[in-house]
Amino acid sequence: MNKIFTALSFVALLSSCATVNYSYEGKAFKDAYSSIKSDELKKNLYVIADDNMEGRDTGSEGQKRAAEYIINYYKNLNISHPAEMSSYLQTVPAEYMNKKSRRGTFNDSANILAFIKGSEKPEEIIVISAHYDHVGMKDGVVYNGADDDGSGTVAVMEIAEAFKQAVKEGHGPKRSILFLHVTGEEHGLFGSSYYVDNPVFPLQNTVADLNIDMIGRDDAENRGQNYVYVIGSEMLSSDLKKINEAANAKTNQLKLNYKYDDPKDPQRLYYRSDHYNFAKKGIPVAFYFDGIHEDYHKPTDDPDKIDYVLLAKRAQLVFATAWELANRKDRIVVDKK
Ligand SMILES: [Zn+2]
């Protein structure tokens, strides 16, 4: 065997190792994936949806307490805000929201941004989003919004921890991941709208938005089943739905329900959460959702009603999909309108 051949086979061996290590069968993925745990989701959700947060209405003191908890969580994990910002907070000015709102006036509020920089294509960004605001209090009753969208909020936090775990093992994401906790969703998707109007990273380099809004419960139609609604994944890219399905097949094999992708569906859910502001800008999205259940926008949307095992499985699906989006060779295509 000559030297050149030896050197070449060494290179081949190295690169095949790299491929294996980022696959769903590799240790890095498995360790990160299994770090997403129902008891950790539960611990965080009991704080986010505690009465002390007063229903997290946009711009309220209760919402600020929730923001502080989320930021401290990232600090403890050693996950920073984007270097382009001086803190985790992107202020969404009252003036911006008042202009868009037909009712009431707002105080300033803020989106929260945490960031893990990609190792190979740092300029390409995968967004994982969830809104951390809810509807506040009415007549002294706190609307805790445990599912809406406490469940998405804690899922994003837990997914961030999983990516950090991979970083520690030397397998951080090749593309960058932005963990985006938006405000003002309940009043009109204000935080996500503000973000796409004032993006921290160029939108043309923003590869996809995986948006999580309510993933901790089930609806009457799917009671007791391992399922999740996935909405909009086929709208802009012929890659994204396939990637999500492959991620699901390799992980928890949830029943993926595409009912709300029907353009004739009267609920029009594709237009009703934060991913839509990204889709409007031509960025492929997938929206993960559990359905409209009996406690939706009621004061009874409480943390004791969450199915934490199912919440973990759905968060793991989002993580597995993001993993592939971040680490695959080619950026997903935008080939539909
Ligand atoms: Zn919501």
Topology, number of strands: 10
Cα-to-Cα separation, first versus last residue: 54 Å
User: DSSP helix count?
Assistant: 10
Which small molecules are bound? Answer: zinc ion
Global Rg? 20 Å
Order of the strands making up the biggest sheet: 1-2-6-3-7-10-8-9
Global structural class: alpha/beta
Mean of residue pLDDT? Answer: 94
Which percent band covers the strand fraction? 15-25%
Morphology call: globular
Summarize the structure.
By secondary structure, the chain is α/β, with parallel strands linked by helices.
Can you put this structure into words, describing what you see?
With 337 residues, the protein is an alpha/beta fold. The chain contains ten helices and ten strands. The strands form two sheets. An eight-stranded mixed β-sheet has the order 1-2-6-3-7-10-8-9, with helices on both faces. α3 (38-48) crosses α6 (146-168), α3 packs across α10 (308-327) and α8 (240-250) packs across α10 (308-327). The chain binds zinc ion.
Distinctive features:
single chain; 337 residues; alpha/beta; eight-stranded mixed β-sheet; 10 strands; 16% strand; globular; binds zinc ion
Give the topology.
Layout: H1 3-22, H2 27-34, H3 38-48, H4 61-77, E1 89-92, H5 94-100, E2 109-116, E3 121-131, E4 137-138, E5 141-142, H6 146-168, E6 175-182, H7 190-197, E7 206-212, E8 227-231, H8 240-250, E9 255-257, H9 275-280, E10 285-289, H10 308-327
Parallel strand pairs: 3-6, 3-7, 7-10, 8-9
Antiparallel strand pairs: 1-2, 2-6, 4-5, 8-10
Helix pairs in contact: 2-6, 3-6, 3-10, 4-6, 6-10, 8-10
This protein binds zinc ion.
Zinc ion (ZN) is lined by residues 131, 148-149, 185, 213-214.
